Amino acid sequence: MLIKTTERFVEEVQFMADAADAVRKIAMEYFRSPLSVEDKADNSPVTIADRAIERSLRSRITERFPDHGIFGEEEAPVNLSSLHLWVVDPIDGTKSFVTGHPLFGGLMALLQDGTPCLGQIDMPALNERWQGCIGVASTFNGSVCHTSKCTRLAEAFVYTTNPFAFEGEMRDVFGIIADTARLVRFGGDCYSYGLLASGHCDLVIETGLQPYDYLPLVQIIEGAGGVITDWAGQPLHLHSEGHVVAAATPELHAETLVHLASLLDRTVT
Questions:
Q1: What is the DSSP letter of 163?
Q2: Which residues bind Mg(2+) (predicted)?
Q3: Which in 46, 71, 254, 266 has the greatest CB count within 10 A?
């Protein structure tokens, strides 16, 4: 597979930024305003804002890149067989959004032949944005960002969005990681990965994510010097199970995988 050169992604990177600028206005129009909240089949909430933002993004993608596919949270996939696939999450952290908490974000990724090549985290209420592009350093609000140099779990600041998402043996393993780490914080959704890319935390571990949750993060984390994979250490792709671990350094990632491997071994046996 021949991935586009970085220079040829300039148009797509600018497109992501322009699209995020446009849909920020939609998000902030509805944020902290009375909203009707519906529960989807998986019991996750959705609002008119989620749907309006995704419609806008899909329209912009179709207009600019008519031969590209689209995979989003709120509507059916389009042209999944395309060489280029946009992955969008209109509001990552809808639970935060509907409760007035500013740590919700918009996510976009571009896959080429299944490989995540571009990624963006946009935080409308905070006016913050991370972008990642294969082959170049990731940026935060236009300036290069770097993960921390933390190499040991005992020194790590760890985030997970929802500790209750870990069930059964997963909870036991996460408990070991939490007990070993220097500090553990909860909440954040996509914002935790931005903090990781900028060196403010060192490890994020999650379960139950969807492709539109994790694929936009890949190039941001890797371009900042970090490592992001599934719990078995395999690259993330459209059909990954949604168990995600992102670390500031290869050493910290490897140590965390040792703990996760004990769970995977028990699951297999």
A1: G
A2: 73, 89, 91-92, 213
A3: 71
Give domain limits for the chain: 6-144, 153-268
**Stated pTM of the model:** 0.93
Strand partners, 92: 105
Helices (H), 1-145: 10-30, 48-64, 94-98
Domain 6-144 class?
A: alpha beta
Q: Is 189 annotated as a binding residue?
A: no
**pLDDT band (50, 70, 90) for residue 220:** very high
230 is an annotated ligand-binding site residue: no
70 is in an annotated binding site: no
For domain 153-268, the CATH class is alpha beta
Q: What is the dihedral of CA 266, 226, 122, 200, to 10 degrees?
A: 100
Q: Measuring CA to CA, which residue among 185, 187, 163 is closest to residue 175?
A: 163
Q: Residue 115 class from Cβ within 10 Å (0-12 exposed, 13-18 middle, 19+ buried)?
A: middle
89 annotated binding-site participant? yes
Q: pLDDT grade, residue 268 (50/70/90)?
A: very low
The pair of structure tokens assigned to 30 is: 């509805």
Residues 196, 202 contacting (CB under 8 angstroms): yes
179 is in an annotated binding site: no
pLDDT tens for 189-212 read: 999 999 999 999 999 999 999 999
CA distance 80 to 68: 9
